[in-house]
Amino acid sequence: MRARSAVPSLVTICSLFCGFLSIFYSVNGKLVPAAWLIVIAGFMDAFDGKLARLFDTPSNFGGQFDSIVDICSFGVSPAVLMLHYYANLGTVLWIPFSACFLFLLCGSLRLARFNIQLKGFEKGNFTGLPIPSAAGALAAYVVFTQGVWSSEHELRVAISLCAMLSFLMISTFEYEVFPKLSLETTKDRLKLLAMLSVIVIMVFYTDEFFFPLALGYALSGVARWLFNLVTDREVADIRNEL
To answer: Residue 44's domain spans which residues?
Structure first.
C-alpha cells in the first residue's frame, strides 16, 4: 500500500527534476531542450493527481507538494527560459525582466487562488489559465521561433505573449480540465477523437503545430466567455420580447 501511495509523489518529483534541469539548460543557452523539459514536466503534472485517484491515495500533502513543485517547474523555469531567450535577441534586459517577473508573480497568485478554492480532490473547470498551460505556451513559442518562425517583431510578440498569459492566469475566465477517457456519450467520443487527432498531428508536425495548439487553449477561456456573454444576452432579449 505504501509503495502505491508513493507513485504519484515520485511522478511529482520527476516534474520538479525536469523543471530544475530546464533552468540548467536555459542558463547554458540550450533553449530548445529547456523548453521541452517544461513540456515533459507538464505531462507529468497532468498525471500525478490522476494516479493518486487511481490508486485511491489522494492526500493534502500530495496537493500541497504538487503546488510547490509547480512554482519551480512552471513559474521559475519558464521565466528563466524567456529571460535567456530575450538575452539572445540582444535587447535591453529590464523590459523583458519585468515581463518574466510578471509571469512568475501571476503564476504564484494563480496557484494560491487554486489552493484556497479547491474542495476535495476532484477538479472542476479551472478558473484562470492553469500555470502548466501558460508555461507550456511559452515553451512552445520558444520551440516555434527556434525552428519555424523568425521575424523582426519576434521580441514584441514574445513580451506581449508573456504579458497576456500572465493576465489570463489571474483572470476569472473558465478553462476545461483534461478530458476524461470515456466512450459513454457522443460528446465523450467526439472529445476522444479530437484528442487522438491532435496527438497524431503533433507526432508529425510537432514544431509547427504545438505553439498554435497551446495558444488556442490559452485563448479558449476568452472565447468561452464571449460565447456565454452573447448567448446570455440573446436569451435575455428573447425573454424580454415574451
So the answer is: 2-241
Would you say 135 and 78 are in contact if contact means Cβ atoms under 8 Å apart?
A: yes
Cell 479530437, residue located: 194
Q: Roughly how many angstroms between the first and final C-alpha of the chain, as a whole number?
A: 61
pLDDT band at 152 (very low <50, low <70, confident <90, very high): confident
pLDDT at 1 over 50: no
Find the CATH number of the domain harbouring 54. 1.20.120.1760
- What is the number of structural domains in the chain? 1
Q: How far apart are CA 131 and CA 129, in angstroms?
A: 6
Residue position matching grid coordinates 505573449:
161
Question: Which pTM was predicted?
Answer: 0.85
Single-letter residue type at 160: S
145 closest CA partner among 207, 55, 235 = 207
Please answer whether residues 78 and 71 qualify as being in contact, where contact means their C-beta atoms are separated by less than 8 angstroms: no
